[in-house]
User: Fold these one by one.
Assistant:
Number 1:
Amino acid sequence: MTRKTVRIAMNGVTGRMGYRQHLVRSILALREQGGLDLGDGTVLWPEPVLVGRREHALKTLAERHGIEHFSTDLDAVLADDSVDIYFDAQVTSARGEALRKAIAAGKHLYTEKPTATGLDGALELARLANAAGIRHGVVQDKLFLPGLLKLKRLIDGGFFGRILSVRGEFGYWVFEGDWQDAQRPSWNYRSEDGGGIVVDMFPHWEYVLHELFGRVKSVQALTATHIPQRWDENGKPYDATADDAAYGIFELEGGAIAQINSSWAVRVNRDELVEFQVDGTEGSAVAGLRDCRVQHRSATPKPVWNPDIPATEVFRDQWQEVPDNGEFDNGFKAQWELFLKHVYADAPTTGTCRPAPAASSSPNWA
Ligand SMILES: NC(=O)c1ccc[n+]([C@@H]2O[C@H](COP(=O)([O-])OP(=O)(O)OC[C@H]3O[C@@H](n4cnc5c(N)ncnc54)[C@H](O)[C@@H]3O)[C@@H](O)[C@H]2O)c1
């Protein structure tokens, strides 16, 4: 086995996603498993170079995890020829500029979503990256959730017959920050800082719908800012200028219709923080982050509408659990592995499902 070191500039690793999911659960986890076996006698050994604005925070992280290199100078890191890949998990508003610099420096690119807060910005980045001839990818972690992998298995096995509709419920109550701290960073609630639930969640819905059910042909959404004032990390009140709920309808190629509610102003009365119900001619399923339950056409009850009597059946008990039938790795790590294989082993596929799109057409993998 030859060991090939891959130096990856990781920007935004002091943040929630950058630290927990990408650094600890993906890159450091890959090192703990001995690197990534490319299957051709090579093992990739990822070496993170932490990048950020606060030297002290980076130093603390580097020391905690035995990481040798960190820097507050992005330009210098990008000018370093030994760094192959640039990864970005910064706040959304800081992403475009950093990605443009990394593309200009000829680095391969892997980034959190969204690449931009509007279509023009996203297309510009995708075109720049394609023109530079680099490999580039955007995080699509939800495809690797056990619940959605089970859903994909059902689709591939023909369980649903013709899929008619998909209904998604995503959300939970995000505290305003006054009498209880908010559990999400305050920039998410200011549109001038790249916040908003559409910008945050619709990138996920696009690839989930596309990969599982068909390309999104049209989207309509009513957005709202239900909570107009919030309190930030320092306890200071601020105006919430971004949408905190979106009620969307998506028309899909193949004829299915998806409706997805996304909200940071709902209280959870579901089994999981996100759930999708899929109804097809032959059966239905409800999938969450981990679990998936089904009801086949042959086991469908025949309720009769009669408001004068109490419900005669416990409808939720009439569904059957889909078994795991396998082990599920962390989705972020699984996608890092795919991306690294895409760069270093020329792996031809994207995500879990679709073949690599033409380089000119996709902001995701090329
Ligand atoms: N894939 C997912 O499921 C998922 C989930 C949450 C967030 N995200 C995305 O990840 C990115 C980071 O989100 P997060 O929740 O980790 O945010 P966060 O606020 O916890 O972290 C933001 C990071 O960006 C850095 N940063 C750089 N420039 C900054 C600036 N001008 N102001 C403030 N911070 C700055 C911070 O130091 C920190 O390291 C966002 O683009 C978000 O859309 C993805």
Number 2:
Amino acid sequence: MTPPKKLVEINEVLHIITYPKNVAEIGVARSKKLTELGIKGIYDYGPLFVEGLRVLGKGHSSIVLLAKHESIGDVAVKIRRTDSKKDSLFREGYLMTLDRFGVMPKVHYFDDDLIIMEFIDGVTLGKYLRTNDVKGATLLKLIMNVLTAAYKLDLNLIDHLELANPYKHIFILKDMEVKIIDFESAKVSENPCNLCRIVSYLTNLLRISKQSNMEVMLKKYKSGCRDSFQDILTSLTSVMAQLNGISV
Ligand SMILES: Nc1ncnc2c1ncn2[C@@H]1O[C@H](COP(=O)(O)OP(=O)(O)OP(=O)(O)O)[C@@H](O)[C@H]1O
Ligand SMILES: [Mg+2]
């Protein structure tokens, strides 16, 4: 059973919204902005514990909190760390608004210091594989959904650039829906190949040797022939099915 989420007033967590420097002036300004944007409080909730509060995540550039919005409900708030090397989250927030296929968290607001977005209530691909005994048809479905999400990013002309090791950027939701997060390094590109990185990663992980026809198909896909996606999907899933002894 999921533990109840405890709501905390923003003013009680000024040290978190200005982590790690804890600057009073910035805290007051950020708190005022969050309140004006409709944030009613911060939940003490998430897999990580930072200075007295559970949070959804902590990266090099940000802290991510679960918050209560007055009209939207639960939202994730990505707040720029006060020691971040990046001077803004604006580009990342903007890029996420370009999503046409629903593979990224929906963005409600963004500026230099904040991104208010959809809370992704799922687990990372890494955790999903570690904690569920995924095999057979379920594994096939998972792989298909992950590949399809990467393909959708490609169709959207967005290169994530951090999917070579996608363990922590790919989230698996209930019903095995896939969402991709953290577009900090992402860029708009004429010919992205998120799919290529995921295929390489998966073939390594599952110890499937990349057959020569796969290399040809990926090359074709990379050169812009997006129709090859179906062939890549069919080829990869049938190799996996053979390994698992199931029919597709
Ligand atoms: N929309 C969201 N819903 C739920 N959890 C999220 C969401 N966005 C981010 N997180 C959690 O917060 C963590 C940090 O987020 P993110 O990777 O975007 O931050 P970052 O500062 O860019 O991190 P890094 O330095 O690792 O790149 C994620 O790994 C994830 O667990
Ligand atoms: Mg990042």
Number 3:
Amino acid sequence: MDEDNDMDGETLYCICRTADSERFMIGCDHCEEWYHGDCIGITAEDARHIKRYYCDACIGHEEIWWFQQAEANVSTEAVYKLL
Ligand SMILES: [Zn+2]
Ligand SMILES: [Zn+2]
């Protein structure tokens, strides 16, 4: 893990860089960073329908963006055919 995140023995999360882990959080499936649902506009209810979550930083990577779009728009079977 990144030691910069651990200055006071607390792990900092999310775009807000706080150690608050009492709220609903979702983990990015690419960088494995944790984000507060309310900071990124995702509710616990939304998350039940999200198979994989990629944060804004990771969405900047083109292959991730493509994969997420592909998952959203076509069946898994069709994705495998494309690959
Ligand atoms: Zn936050
Ligand atoms: Zn990420």
